[in-house]
Amino acid sequence: MKYVFKTPDLGEGTTQAEIVEWRVKPGDFVREDQPLADLMTDKATVEISSPVHGTIVSLHGAPGETMAVGSELVVFDIAGDGPAEGSATRENMSTAAAARDEAPLSAETRDAPPPVAPVIERPEPAPTPQSVQAFATRTPGEKPVASPAVRREAAERGIALAFVPGTGPGGRILRDDLDAFVAAKGGTANNGASAARRNDGGEEIKIIGLRRKIAERMQDAKRRIPHIAYVEEIDVTALEDFRDHLNGRHAAARGKLSLLPFLMRAMVRSLAKFPEVNAHFDDAAGIVRRYAAVHIGVATQTTSGLVVPVVRHAEALDIWESAREIARLASAARDGKVTREELTGSTITISSLGALGGVMSTPVINSPEVAIVGVNKIVERPVVLRGQIVVRKMMNLSSSFDHRIIDGWDAASFIQEIKAGLEQPALLFMPEPR
After folding, report:
1. 407 in catalytic set
2. Catalytic pick among 60, 250, 403, 410
3. What pLDDT digit, counting tens, does each position of 36-66 carry?
4. Number of helices (H) and strands (E), helices first, in the chain?
5. Cα(417)–Cα(324) distance, integer angstroms
6. Nearest Cα to 189, choosing from 157, 152, 143?
7. Is 4 buried (19+), middle (13-18) or exposed (0-12) by CB count in 10 A?
8. What's the average model confidence in pLDDT over 326-349?
9. What's the pLDDT score for residue 420?
10. What is the spatial distance between Cα 108 and Cα 210, in angstroms, rounded to a whole number?
């Protein structure tokens, strides 16, 4: 009996889903609840599981193809008294996340995509040769015999022909002899020269799934949003000393503090004075929505790519609570267990490259937000302080703002307020005057 499993409704009004990856192939026997495929919506990537026991007859759609809800996805051959041919609904199917909002999701639209196999044919490796003796066909001092093409290739690969045994007529050195010589030496020419050679190959990688969604969102953001960039340097010497002091006293009991919790606290204090920065802009409706709650997205690098979990209500968290929430979300993201709710709803974003932060960057705003704060790496360098040249720990903030909503003066003032809190960390813990 044939059973047709149709593309499920993944909720939240979705009408279509993109195939990211098939977990099965025609001819496979699968059991109920066994993963079939990963489908992606605008919100997240969802693992789809089999609703029945059976053998896969056919799969509809290739990775990267968009399937309409209700269209045929998988055809099974099932034995015994199974359900009649037809579609699987959310009431009679067992998917991993079609109706379970708390199931772990791999990523949302800003997540990095699953790896894509390169479309390239690679040559079979040469068989491992038997041990080769130098001068096997020549007496010491005898000039090696080789064609101009072989001599040219040997020069390009950094191989001295005097050391290469020849297996051709009269001891002539052939191309195969060059390969055998390099393989016998452990894959490198042993004459101190480079073994580099020309590479004319290449590969084509189809952009699908989350990577394509990210590309579309970034393109849309850059096309629609007039970005204004603002870079400011900050002396974090006092902050780093304070952070080291707190870690030395409390890390064992309360957890280790990174720079990010302090930056988040400085941002919360600054946003109280510049609420227009903690907002979404619905340009289609012409409405700016300012938020009292501060939900900060924190870019997190994982083995699968970049994800941006959200620290909710940062305004209500102290330094250690913020640090623990950042650590929890980062761990969940790296393990692929972060949920849809933890990946959505940010009102402003922090972009940090950590030790690779460089001197400056130009982060792209995560629409519909109107600002993103980029963190560059901390470096020690000489600066002038009170008329003296001293070594200080300096860090740049490279931030972008939606110039339709945020004027340059307000953008600079917002960052200057953050700077004041980071350079004088005691301010972060003092109540604001009423």
Report:
1. yes
2. 403
3. 998 887 656 778 899 999 999 999 998 888 8
4. 7, 19
5. 25
6. 157
7. middle
8. 89
9. 96
10. 7
- Residue 102 within any structural domain of the chain: no
Residue that is written with structure tokens 């995509």 in the block: 113
Reported as type and span, the H/E element at residue 230 is strand 227-235
Contact 225, 408 (CB under 8 A): no
Taking only the tens place, the pLDDT of each residue in 95-122 is: 434 434 444 444 444 444 444 444 444 4
Which one of the listed residues 28, 318, 335, 407 is annotated catalytic? 407
* pLDDT tens for each residue of 215-238: 888 888 889 999 999 999 999 999
3-state DSSP assignment of residue 16: strand
Q: Is residue 118 part of a domain?
A: no
Closest CA relative to residue 203, chosen from 112, 115, 304, 121: 121
The Cα 373–Cα 22 span in angstroms is 37
Q: Cα–Cα distance between 110 and 118 in angstroms, integer? A: 23
- Token pair belonging to 405: 């909503």
Instruction: Give the DSSP letter of residue 279.
Output: E
The residues, ordered by sequence, that sit 6+ positions from 88 with a Cβ below 8 Å of its Cβ are: 5, 6, 8, 51
In this predicted structure, the answer to whether residue 76 has a pLDDT above a threshold of 60 is yes
Cα–Cα distance for residue pair 121/44, rounded to 1 Å: 33
401 pLDDT above the threshold of 80 = yes
Structure tokens at 315: 């305004």
Q: Report strand pairing: 72-77 vs 54-59.
A: antiparallel
* Domain assignment of residue 152, given as a range: 127-206
187 with 243, same domain? no
CATH code assigned at 408? 3.30.559.10
Position 6 in a domain: yes
Tell me how many domains the chain contains: 3
- Within a 13 Å sphere around the CA of 269, how many CA atoms are in the beta-carbon half? 24
The pTM for the full model equals: 0.62
